[in-house]
Backbone:
């Protein structure tokens, strides 16, 4: 194992907050981001999952005879929890071999007149194949919800992700790019649907002074600790403790509560987000430049595949997602790198059926490609704090493991 250092790099490239971001200001976060992205008005919610829940409840009311939500079998456990909380049925779709997109044949097999929505997912900032989901959805009369939780700022043919489907959502959670500790943005191209989403939220999302106070304190903690020295305390030490206890699910934070809190986001957190959002375009450009510089180096390593975008897409680069030849090599690489403070980690530990705590809400379906993806993938942070020496250390370690 590589020696542990004094600082700790985050597994994803979040936009660091500055002291001046914490000053009071106008709560213009959603308006500013819509202008930046070139989207219709964005609806601010308390999390990406809350945004998804509101979307699902809205669609359920529009089409009460349809109950199935088709999702990639390798995705965030919160997606399964949202489907359950909306009173709908989860239908898994296996992945393409060695890819984060849903397999086109499996997708066609999973969809019929019971399908309410299909959820292409822009995993790791990579732009997903929404066109294929739209083709299938049109055939069976279903909707498309783009899960862009990990892809705020990503574009396809010059247009923000989330705009090709009927509904899209982004996450503003800690560690996912721009953060107000917990937050989400909901988007619909069609103004009538947008209006319905807003009405659903007005009905079911309460104000909560207590929760908002808690989130505000958490945001202050995040602002203070999201830097290489603070992250050892806030991220590295709990990670190593969980791994020592043989709990990889806990180590990456995949163990979510089974109910989704709903609350309105207060004005101060919106102002903090708006201040930070002014730096987002330059930050995303910086990350993209760094990723484009590092991808060729990774591709020189025999046995490493790096996930990339289709030719007409410009994704975001919170981290680089790699596939190694098999689980044994992947685990050998992690044995060297996971606890080294270099920002190497895993995305989700399992395909959805692999989580014990989700047994009652995820169908026990065999999804071999999703399982394979979980077993062979690892992530390398694209944080600007990961300097060229650190990156070279990671590459050399991968070379030695794969030799
Ligand atoms: C994080 C995430 C979500 C949920 O977003 P939160 O803001 O954490 O609630 C949904 N889908 C994917 C793919 C995610 O990574």
Residues:
């Amino acid at each position: 194992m590589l020696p542990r250092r004094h600082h700790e790099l985050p597994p994803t490239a979040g936009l660091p907050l500055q002291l001046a971001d914490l000053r009071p200001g106008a709560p213009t976060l959603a308006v500013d981001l819509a202008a930046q992205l070139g989207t219709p008005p964005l609806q601010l919610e308390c999390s990406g999952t809350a945004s998804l829940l509101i979307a699902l409840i809205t669609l359920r009311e529009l089409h009460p005879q349809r109950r199935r939500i088709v999702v990639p079998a390798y995705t965030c456990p919160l997606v399964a929890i949202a489907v359950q909380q909306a009173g709908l049925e989860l239908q898994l779709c296996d992945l393409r071999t060695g890819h984060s997109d849903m397999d086109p044949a499996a997708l066609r097999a999973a969809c019929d007149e019971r399908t309410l929505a299909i959820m292409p997912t822009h995993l790791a900032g990579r732009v997903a194949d929404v066109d294929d989901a739209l083709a299938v959805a049109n055939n069976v009369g279903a909707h498309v919800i783009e899960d862009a939780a990990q892809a705020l700022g990503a574009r396809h043919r010059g247009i923000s992700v989330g705009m090709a489907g009927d509904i899209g959502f982004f996450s503003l959670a800690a560690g996912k790019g721009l953060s107000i500790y917990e937050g989400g943005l909901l988007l619909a191209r069609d103004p009538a649907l947008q209006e319905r989403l807003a009405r659903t939220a007005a009905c079911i999302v309460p104000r909560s002074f207590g929760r908002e106070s808690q989130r505000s304190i958490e945001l202050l903690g995040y602002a203070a600790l999201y830097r290489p020295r603070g992250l050892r305390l806030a991220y590295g030490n709990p990670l190593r403790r969980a791994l020592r206890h043989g709990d990889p699910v806990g180590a990456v934070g995949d163990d979510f509560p089974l109910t989704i809190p709903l609350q309105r986001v207060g004005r101060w957190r919106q102002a903090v987000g708006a201040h930070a959002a002014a730096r987002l375009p330059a930050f995303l450009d910086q990350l993209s430049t760094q990723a484009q510089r590092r991808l060729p180096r990774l591709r020189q390593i025999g046995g490493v595949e790096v996930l990339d975008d289709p030719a007409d897409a410009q994704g975001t680069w919170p981290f680089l997602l790699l596939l190694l030849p098999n689980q044994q090599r992947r685990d050998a690489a992690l044995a060297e790198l996971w606890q080294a403070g270099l920002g190497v980690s895993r995305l989700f530990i399992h395909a959805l059926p692999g989580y014990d705590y989700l047994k009652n809400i995820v169908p026990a379906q065999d999804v071999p490609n999703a399982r394979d993806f979980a077993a062979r993938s690892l992530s390398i942070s694209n944080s600007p704090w990961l300097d060229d020496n650190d990156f070279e250390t990671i590459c050399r370690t991968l070379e030695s493991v794969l030799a």
Q: What stands out?
A: The chain has a mean pLDDT of 96. Residues 280-402 form a domain with the Aspartate Aminotransferase, domain 1 fold (CATH 3.90.1150.10). The radius of gyration is 20 Å. The CA atoms of residues 226 and 377 lie 25 Å apart.
